[in-house]
């Protein structure tokens, strides 16, 4: 009996170890793909920032239009913003049955909102704008670093990322209680994006903030940024829920986000920031920064338009100096490659279309290489690498360092190695080691840091000798069952107490035995979802993979070793995954250890075609570029109507072609934009926009 028990125990341990290894591999896949997407977002914004810096408007009207299109509404003055978002002029119809707000807010208003959102009701646009107006007034009075004391409440509850998952917020309030004079909360940023109910979360949090201003504290996260919202869903969510007043609501949210405090300090001993720190993080500077200047942390204005030299050099064709007035290395100019004469006549649609596609593709590829949009380039261009704090004059240095201070605390991650280095995985912020943490805590006499920004399997995780605590409150973040959510409670002794949960309605009805019984199936489901996403990523890079495989197939046999397969895949995708370990899930086993890579890629294409019913060559390009192009579409679509006007497209084309040697007149551009408008409704929708980039083809 004893031997049998030992054998069962050994079997169980091996089995659980294998499950844990599968879980870790699955987790690594999800996280690598997520961070690669964030990196793409920053690269894409680098691309537009570079074009903006190099573009020379031909008139004041053109300059104003481009500024409105690509730069946030930070130029709105106080009176202009209030006039633009005038909530008093919006009439609430008698047929409206949702919650109603009156100011000053009372606890009953918060309770009514909670019940309404549980019933899937929507708050009227007038009340949303009124709430944002009052929230903005309150936030403007707050310091950059909020100070909280446990003397006034028994404990402080700290919550991490929620990412639009309203069920998690409901569960937190159910378990821990609603905010009150005796129940303080700190919500550590990333309230929005990814999930489908970001708007409701913000309304609830802002409501409690106004009711209990001393007990509810909100930090800014890296997703409280309108440029990030364009890609990850919040912009789209607002416009879908508020089709009439959505633009005003978005504008107010943008302004409210930039007024959110940057950090919270509990009892002068525990610092709460969203991302992390760097070896240059300075709390004294963070306290003095005019935080509302940074509407989007992704774009740093290196110099004001008025401080630039007149654009006569560009107009006269003179080359700019290699360095700007502040000593910064100038961004590389796009080479003006000679083209084959003038543009063909637009009367010959086929000839003109061929010439245009070839010219645009060549120049876009050149531009992509220069600003490193291409994923195949070995070095990533990041905002951290673009800014040199050593070689600029004092005034510009101060402005850029302020920006870097905010970038670091919103985007950085801890690492086990010592030192501080650029975070190339995310594309922004830095990695900071335990030595950086130790010096920072000692300098400011702190006990430990609380940060969020990273999904953790158990909802929380300690690192750096328990001096850095990551707390993440969005459960089921990647897939149902992928992770728990958690929040942490701190009393006067500042000892953290964790509460974990999983907001899954079906799981609440299961017994403990049933939950244990579905553990394996749950892991398999999450694993299947991860590998499906990974196969999509592989399929999206089919062309690059074929080139990489051929480099190892010198005899053109169509076969390579599995070891070379793993090396080639990593060289293309650059996800840092253990491909040899993942190989059994992606590649069929072979007796001789060789892989017929063409048939393997055909199998990937067949799997994706079965889902999309599109030819594989086109589908590959869509998978690889759709997210970037959808973000570009939303940038150009400044009124977020889902349609691009002819004027918006014309000005954008001028921006793209400003450094392309394309002699195309305004009439030529008008002919082009009309040819893209297939349904002749006077606007360009997303499918028509994809056609402009040769991603959607007309049926023969």
TrEMBL record:
Its EC number is 3.1.3.16. Keywords: Calcium, Hydrolase, Manganese, Metal-binding, Repeat. It catalyses: O-phospho-L-seryl-[protein] + H2O = L-seryl-[protein] + phosphate; O-phospho-L-threonyl-[protein] + H2O = L-threonyl-[protein] + phosphate. One of its GO terms (biological process) is negative regulation of MAPK cascade. Coiled coil: none annotated. Residues 540-575, 624-659, 664-699 form the EF-hand domain. Residues 305-344 are annotated as: Disordered. PROSITE patterns: EF_HAND_1 (PS00018), EF_HAND_2 (PS50222), IQ (PS50096), SER_THR_PHOSPHATASE (PS00125). The keyword Metal-binding applies. GO terms for molecular function: calcium ion binding; Hsp90 protein binding; iron ion binding; manganese ion binding; protein serine/threonine phosphatase activity. It comes from the Eukaryota. Its cofactor is Mn(2+). Belongs to the PPP phosphatase family. This is Serine/threonine-protein phosphatase. It comes from Pardalotus punctatus (spotted pardalote).
């Amino acid at each position: 009996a004893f031997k049998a028990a030992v054998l069962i125990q050994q079997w169980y341990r091996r089995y659980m170890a294998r499950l844990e290894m599968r879980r870790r591999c699955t987790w690594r896949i999800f996280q690598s793909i997520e961070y690669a997407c964030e990196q793409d977002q920053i690269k894409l914004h680098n691309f537009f920032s570079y074009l903006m810096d190099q573009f020379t408007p031909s008139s004041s009207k053109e300059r104003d239009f481009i500024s409105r299109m690509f730069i946030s509404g930070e130029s709105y003055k106080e009176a202009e913003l209030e006039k633009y978002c005038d909530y008093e002029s919006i009439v609430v119809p008698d047929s409206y049955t949702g919650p109603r707000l009156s100011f000053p807010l009372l606890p009953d208003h918060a309770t009514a909102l909670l019940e309404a959102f549980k019933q899937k009701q929507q708050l009227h646009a007038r009340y949303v704008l009124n709430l944002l107006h009052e929230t903005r007034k309150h936030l403007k009075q707050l310091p950059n670093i909020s100070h909280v004391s446990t003397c006034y409440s028994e404990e402080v509850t700290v919550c991490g990322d929620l990412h639009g998952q309203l069920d998690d917020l409901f569960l937190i309030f159910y378990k821990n209680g609603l905010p009150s004079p005796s129940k303080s909360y700190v919500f550590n940023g990333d309230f929005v994006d990814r999930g489908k109910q970001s708007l409701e979360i913000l309304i609830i949090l802002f409501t409690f903030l106004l009711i209990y201003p001393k007990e509810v504290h909100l930090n800014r996260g890296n997703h409280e940024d309108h440029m990030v919202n364009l890609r990850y869903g919040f912009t789209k969510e607002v416009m879908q829920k508020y089709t009439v007043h959505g633009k005003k609501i978005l504008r107010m949210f943008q302004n409210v986000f930039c007024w959110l405090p940057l950090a919270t300090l509990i009892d002068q001993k525990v610092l709460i920031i969203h991302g992390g720190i760097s070896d240059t993080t300075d709390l004294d500077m963070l306290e003095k920064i005019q935080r509302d200047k940074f509407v989007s942390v992704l774009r740093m204005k290196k110099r004001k338009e008025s401080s630039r030299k007149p654009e006569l050099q560009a107009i006269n064709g003179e080359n700019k100096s290699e360095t700007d007035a502040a000593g910064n290395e100038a961004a590389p100019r796009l080479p003006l490659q000679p083209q084959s004469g003038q543009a063909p006549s637009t009367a010959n649609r086929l000839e003109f279309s061929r010439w245009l596609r070839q010219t645009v593709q060549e120049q876009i590829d050149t531009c992509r290489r220069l600003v490193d949009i291409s994923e195949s380039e070995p070095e990533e261009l990041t905002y951290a690498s673009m800014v040199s704090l050593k070689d600029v004059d004092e005034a510009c240095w101060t402005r850029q360092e302020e920006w870097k201070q905010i970038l670091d605390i919103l985007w950085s991650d801890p690492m086990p190695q010592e030192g501080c280095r650029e975070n190339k995985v995310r594309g922004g912020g830095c990695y900071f080691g335990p030595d950086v943490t130790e010096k920072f805590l000692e300098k400011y006499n702190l006990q430990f840091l609380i940060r969020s920004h990273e999904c953790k399997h158990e909802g929380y995780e300690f690192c750096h000798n328990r001096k850095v605590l990551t707390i993440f409150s969005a459960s089921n973040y990647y897939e149902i069952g992928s992770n728990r959510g958690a929040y942490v409670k701190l009393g006067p002794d500042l000892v953290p107490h964790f509460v974990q949960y999983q907001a899954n309605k079906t799981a609440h009805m299961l017994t403990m035995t049933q939950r244990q019984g579905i553990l394996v199936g749950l892991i398999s489901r999450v694993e299947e979802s991860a590998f499906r996403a990974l196969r999509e990523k592989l399929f999206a890079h089919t062309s690059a993979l074929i080139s990489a495989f051929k480099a190892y197939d010198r005899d053109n046999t169509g076969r390579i070793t599995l070891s070379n397969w793993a090396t080639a895949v990593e060289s293309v995708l650059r996800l840092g995954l253990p491909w040899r370990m993942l190989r059994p899930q992606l590649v069929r086993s072979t007796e001789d250890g060789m892989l017929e890579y063409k048939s393997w890629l055909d199998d990937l294409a067949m799997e994706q075609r079965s889902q999309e019913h599109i030819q594989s060559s086109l589908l590959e390009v869509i998978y690889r570029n759709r997210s970037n192009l959808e973000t570009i579409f939303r940038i150009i679509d400044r009124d977020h109507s889902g349609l691009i006007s002819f004027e918006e497209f014309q000005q954008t084309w001028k921006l793209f072609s400003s450094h392309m040697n394309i002699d195309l007149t305004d009439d030529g551009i008008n002919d082009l934009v009309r040819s893209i408008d297939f349904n002749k409704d006077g606007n360009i929708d997303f499918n028509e926009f994809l056609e402009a980039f040769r991603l959607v083809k007309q049926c023969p």
